[in-house]
Amino acid sequence: MAVGENQQAGVRRGFATHLADGVRRFFHGDLWHSFTRSPVVMVSAVITVVFVASAIFAPLVAPYDPFDLASIDLLDSEIPPIWIEGGDPRFLLGTDDQGRGILSTMIYGARISLGVGFASVLFAMVLGVGLGLLSGYLGGTVDAIIMRIADVQLTFPAILIALLIDGLSRTVLPRDLHGEIWFYVLVLAIGLSFWVQYARTVRGSAMVERSKEYVQAAQVIGIPPLLIMLRHVLPNVMGPVLVIATINLAIAVITEATLSFLGVGVPPTSPSLGTLIRVGNDFLFSGSWWITIFPGAALAILVLAVNLLGDWLRDALNPKLR
Amino acid sequence: MSRTGTNQPLLQVENLRVEIPGRRGTLVAVDDISFAIGEGEVLGVVGESGAGKSLTGAAVIGLLEPPCRIAGGQILFDSRRIDNLPYEKLRRIRGRHIGMVFQDPLTSLNPLYTVGRQLTETILTHSDLSEKGARKRALELLQEVGIPAAERRIDQYPHEFSGGMRQRVVIALALCASPRLIIADEPTTALDVSIQAQIITLLKRLCRDHGAAVMLVTHDMGVIAETADRVAVMYAGRIVEIGPVADVVLRARHPYTEGLMGSIPLVGHDVDRLTQIDGAMPRLNAIPAGCAFNPRCPKAFERCRQARPELETVEATEAACWLYEEAPERSGTDG
Amino acid sequence: MIAFVVRRLLQSIGVMLAVGLIAFSLFNYVGDPINNMVGQDTTLEQRQELRERLGLDDPFFVQYGRFLVNAVQGDFGISYRHRRPVADLITERVPATLELSFIAAVLALFIGVPMGVYTGLHRRGALSQVFLSVSLVGVSLPTFLIGILLILVFGVMSQDINAAVGFYLVPQLPTFGRGDTVQLGWWSTGFLTKSGLLALILPSITLALFQMTLIMRLVRSEMLEVLRTDYIKFARARGLTNRAVNFGHALKNTLVPVITITGLQLGSIIAFSLITEQVFQWPGMGLLFIQAINEVDIPVMASYLMMIGFFFVFINLVVDLLYYVVDPRLRADKAVSGGHQ
User: Fold this and answer.
1) Lowest-pLDDT range of A26-40, B122-136, B288-302
2) Is-contact A206 A235, C-beta < 8 A?
3) In sequence order, what are the residues at sequence separation of 6 or more whose Cβ sits closer than 8 angstroms to the Cβ of residue B303?
4) Is the CB of residue B2 less than 8 Å from the CB of residue B98?
5) Phi, psi for B37 (deg, rounded to 5)
6) Architecture per CATH, A45-317
7) Each residue of A166-222: pLDDT tens digit?
8) Does C275 reach chain A within 8 Å, measured CB to CB?
9) Residues from chain A contacting residue B67 (CB–CB below 8 Å)
10) pLDDT above 70: residue C340
């Protein structure tokens, strides 16, 4: 037992120094250097941080709580932004058909969009890395099955798979229940459509590591080889996985918005950016363009910023492509 | 290009400097080197990988990949400066006057076109032959480089040839327009040992027949000893010794050359043991002060760590080493 | 050659069987099909009778086999919602989707590939930077948002804009439906009427934009990859003209991977068309599918899945065959194992 604890401590200490090393390398390395050299990337990072921060602290940041029925007055509906004639100084970006401030609904909407986005990326990452590790480590039939599923899934666009899973859940689950657990359904639907890239990346690296001697050595001294591989494979694939995750975050946010726009994503009771755009779309022809355009612009800016970060990360971590 | 001034060498490289600008400052990959190749002469260029020999070859033919660039000096071909020519003019020289053979025959040929098409395309670019004439010439070339059943092989794709056969095709391609200088960049490194000798013999014979001079870039001293007339030894971007091959091989002046020679067995020379050079060549961003070789040099002394030696004539060869500072013919240096 | 085609065909059939299995499971095990077909007041006996008549008590594989046989014959069952054969519904909707997808694919290819080649060859050129920036915006704008913006500019605000600038700058374009169509046998086409063609403009641009930027970026990165290879360096060293090197050697080698991925992209155009169809209320299969999901109309969902699966498998097959035509290495290596991953 004592031996086991020692090993555990060793592993933990190893991890801590690893982390410290990583942080040191980061600030002295090319990544940080190229970051400080590119204004576009820095602006993207600032935008992303602003979005994430205002999403997390939405109740503090937003001028009104769009879910607080007491603060909503139907008389305030469809007020244009303040710089247009008829604007109201209380509502910077105008109001929607129910008299909710667009800015406030947007901030809460971004909170939901980013929440679904981060959760589904995390889910896809854990699933993909796990399956990739398993596939690369076990090989044989397991590998063949996982990779065949990946192949078939890759021939279909992610949005279609997400749509199908979401549609299925609607048929299987009773309507009331679906109204409550839509968040998990969406995360599952979007996450399941993105795991393949992680799995492929990790599998390749795991296959290389598996044949190395230290894995066999670890087996001999009784450490589970899967554990030891985890420690050696993960650092190797950190870079690619991070790049995939960043770009996936952008795609996940778009996918969620698209599903919501199609009316099968986030319910209108707690609207995401996509839901706001869909609802606002009905008012486009009546001239109240701001109801849909501002959430749309916010979505586009957020995705663009995350995409730019992803592009920069990929180039910075893969000098060959520069 | 006319062959004026018989005394002028075919290729003259003067104070060539190649830089690689990077985010962490500029690296000097080729540092102020000068050499010449006469008409029909074979100059061997040896050195470890990273010594700058391939970049020198690429600079001569104007194919440095950005961000690498020529930062100083000049290159004269047939007494005409070529390093500052615009792309289109330089293109007309490439293939026509200066040919090139690359290291890896597996990747030098376009996999999607037949060998014949790649040959005729090159011939048509540099001559007024008709399509038919070009094909006839392509066939002759294939036969000349020793491809059996050339009539059939001409319509095959590169992947249908073996490595050695492909390198023959690559040589045929380089010889298409009978250039007067061929730059061969490690032409045998990627081949089986058994085929290397054949390819070297072929290259040597063809260049003699066509009267082409060769700049043979390699890290294989054995190939140089067999093939070259003169040899230049490069270390960390500089030429440390240059001279007739017999002198350099048998009476190496520079300790680095000595080390190189010591590490290959020579038939007919009694050596008790093969020597080896300790350590590794410095990276381009960490070249030591003084002579770049001093940390590995068994004969290094104080001076070597302070100032960098220039090439000095030492009997038949030139060497850049402080050991020969007191050599009598100091005036014969070549800047 | 024949062995290769046969192997690819067998693989395609395998994938179709798998897709069929999913569609079939959806059809039979999600919810109770009987409940979906009959009213509340049907007795248990009547239900049991219907069960037997439909063969729902047969063993799994018998039912699956029957489902496949029916599907091959174009029988996908009856829509719960529309009370009509799904095959009829789809036949009505297919032309709209395919015409839209075709135009979008042509746009995406004929603009995306040249832009990709240009930006690959002139890496640091100003125009390349413009193209790349625009493409990044294109990738970041969700398809539906592009559609909404186009509707706003060309549908809602065009007259205001024209009035503001004082001349006819922005044409008013249709933003809803297909316009007038002409019936050719069972195929209804919008290509033959003016309103049909006008109605195609905004939806096809919307659908094409995203794919176009993807194709451009793909061609660019492949081009950069190929331009680094030894055979391109060697081609330059032989003094070949820039034109011959760039277009004769580099572009052709770029084509091999580009064909593969572009083919898949074209497949996803058909899938993505459902978003565009929703934005422009374009009466295609996608709109039908979205409605089916909202209304839990399982036969329609299952058959849409089968149709899309078929399109994808078919496109994959064509892509593989094209690949085979372009790359002589595949033609020679008869023993090469099926894939090209």
Assistant:
1) A26-40
2) no
3) B290, B322, B325
4) no
5) -125, 125
6) Orthogonal Bundle (1.10)
7) 777 777 777 677 667 888 888 988 888 888 888 888 888 887 777 777 777 777 777
8) yes
9) none
10) no
- If you average pLDDT over residues B197-205, what whole number do you get? 85
Fold of C2-31+58-330: MetI-like fold (1.10.3720)
Domain that holds residue B291: 8-92+224-265+282-335
- For an interface test with C, which of A159, A201, A259, A282 has the most C Cβ atoms less than 10 Å from its Cβ? A159
Cα of A36 vs its chain's centroid, Å: 25
Q: Do B102 and C230 touch (CB under 8 A)?
A: yes
Specify the amino acid at residue B64.
Answer: L
Give how far A6 is from chain C: nearest CA, Å.
44
pLDDT band at B2 (very low <50, low <70, confident <90, very high): very low
* Domain tally, chain B: 1
- For the residues of A57-90, what is the DSSP string, one character each? THHHHSSS-TT-GGG--GGGTTPPPTTSTT--TT
Q: State the average pLDDT for chain A.
A: 79
Strand order in the sheet with B317-319: B98-101, B181-185, B213-218, B42-46, B230-235, B238-244, B317-319, B312-314
Identity of residue C289: F
The domains of chain A are located at 1-37, 45-317
Token pair of C290, please?
Answer: 């979205």
Question: For residue C339, which amino acid is it?
Answer: G
Q: What is the average pLDDT across B302-326? A: 79
Q: Which chains contact B through at least 3 pairs of Cβ atoms less than 8 Å apart?
A: A, C
Q: Which of C292, C298, C312 sits opposite A156 (nearest CB)?
A: C312
Tens of pLDDT, residue by residue over B87-112, are: 888 888 888 888 888 888 788 888 88
Q: Which residues face A218 on adjacent strands?
A: none
Residue among B302, B236, A284, A162 at smallest CA distance from C149: A284
Q: Which of C123, C140, C282 would you mutate first to test chain A, the one with the most A CBs within 10 A?
A: C140
Quote the ipTM score: 0.81
B63: nearest CB among C237, C240, C252: C237
Spatial separation of the C-alpha atoms in residues A103 and A85, rounded to whole Å: 18
Confidence of residue A22 (pLDDT cuts 50, 70, 90): low
Per residue in C257-273, pLDDT (tens digit) is 777 777 777 777 887 88
Interface test with C, best of A261, A283, A286, A291 (most C CBs within 10 A): A261
Structure letter (DSSP) for residue B330? G
Contact A167 C301 (CB under 8 A): yes
CB A146, CB A134: distance < 8 Å:
yes
Helix H or strand E segment including B69: strand B69-77
Please give the span between the terminal C-alpha atoms of chain A, in angstroms, as a whole number: 51
pLDDT score of B146 more than 60: yes
- Among residues A195, A247, A205, the alpha carbon closest in space to that of A229 is found at A205
pLDDT at B316: 77
A30 to chain B: which residues are within 8 Å by CB?
A: 23
**pLDDT tens digits, one per residue of C93-147:** 889 998 999 999 899 888 988 898 899 888 888 888 888 888 888 778 888 888 9
Exposure string of B283-293, with b = 16+ CB inside 10 Å and e = fewer, is: ebeebeebbbb
CB-CB: which of C15, C275, C308 is closest to A262? C275
Distance of alpha carbon B72 from its chain centroid, rounded? 20
pTM of the model: 0.76
> What separation in angstroms does the CA of C142 have from each of A183, C149, C249?
21, 11, 36
From C233, C252, C332, residue closest to B102, measured CB to CB: C233
Partner residue facing A307 (CB), from C140, C312, C313: C140
Nearest CA in chain C to A301: C140
Contact of C149 with chain A, judged by CB distance below 8 Å, is answered with: yes
